[in-house]
Amino acid sequence: MSYLELEDVDVRLGDTEVLRRVSCSLDERTIAVIGENGSGKSTLARLVGGLTHATGGTIRVLGLDPARDATRLRRRVAVVFSNPDTQIVMPTVAEDVAFSLRSDKLSRDEKTRRVDEAMHRFGLTEVAGRASHDLSGGQKQLLALCGAFVRRPDLVIADEPTAYLDARNARRVADHLFEEGRHRLLLVTHDLALARRCEKAVLVQDGAIAAVGAPDEIIAEYEVGLGC
Ligand SMILES: Nc1ncnc2c1ncn2[C@@H]1O[C@H](COP(=O)(O)OP(=O)(O)OP(=O)(O)O)[C@@H](O)[C@H]1O
Fold it and tell me: What is the top-level taxon of the source organism (predicted)?
């Protein structure tokens, strides 16, 4: 079984049918989700992350049903959104990163070591004691990513993770996202250069999956549709 299995999945939010009969079986380590504004990409990401529930069909993520195994899934999946404010919960940067490890059964020393190492990787060591909400938009984005990676998840779901970042930090974050390691990546992005770095691409159109394939081919199809 692939780690991402969707069969005839529908998602209705209020009166809107946001995703319709979505089916796919994906096992590539890095997957890009592309498509026009409002096509349903973020909803698909939230669905895979267990934050939005299907109203029809079946879904398995890492072999788990997000509706029934939410706790187990949360332990293995990290979701990062384009708006980092929704993810920052603790007063200082270091506390916020440590908060991500609150339910991990690690010794205090091991937690401290992991937090320090993650802050170093994301260039946050110098602002470790600063108030989280006083950071710039880009620094907040790095903090949200740091909080996701410190947990060493099996699957990272990132929705426009480089949206607020300058070129240097965007590169740094992309390098972490694509780092050879244990995590798989589902990346929602309008940055087609980033999408090209994935092993597979999914094109979402009007709430449905229009195409799945090699990124170059799927991006070409998308650009034709956009009239580029
Ligand atoms: N909670 C909600 N209630 C009703 N409609 C919603 C809700 N969330 C999203 N939608 C609608 O679902 C559609 C898809 O939204 P979604 O955010 O998934 O698109 P997207 O492809 O990620 O767009 P973008 O590229 O602009 O971020 C949009 O028409 C949006 O208005």
Answer: Bacteria
Tens place of pLDDT per residue across the chain (228 aa): 899 999 999 999 999 999 999 999 999 999 999 999 999 999 999 999 999 999 999 999 999 999 899 889 988 999 998 788 888 889 999 999 999 998 888 888 999 999 999 999 999 999 999 999 899 888 998 999 999 999 999 999 999 998 888 898 888 889 889 987 779 999 999 999 999 999 999 999 999 999 999 999 999 999 988 887
Are 145 and 97 in contact by the 8 Å Cβ rule? The answer is no
Residue 15, ligand 1, Cβ within 6 A: no
Does residue 138 have its Cβ closer than 6 Å to ligand 1?
A: no
Residue 121 forms part of a structural domain: yes
For the Cβ of 52 lying below 6 angstroms from any atom of ligand 1, the answer is: no
According to DSSP, residue 193 is labeled H
Question: Is 144 within a domain?
Answer: yes
Measured CA to CA, the distance from residue 199 to residue 180 in angstroms comes to 13
How high is the ipTM of this complex? 0.96
Structural domain span for residue 148: 29-49+69-226
Residue of 39, 209, 226 to test ligand 1 pocket, by largest number of atoms within 8 Å of CB: 39
Q: How far is the CA of 73 from the centre of ligand 1 (A)?
A: 23
Instruction: Tell whether 108 is covered by a domain.
Output: yes
Number of domains, the chain:
1
Kindly state the tokens that stand for 68.
């029934």
Which helix (H) or strand (E) is 23 found in, with range?
strand 16-26
For residue 188, which atom of ligand 1 is closest to its CA?
A: 22
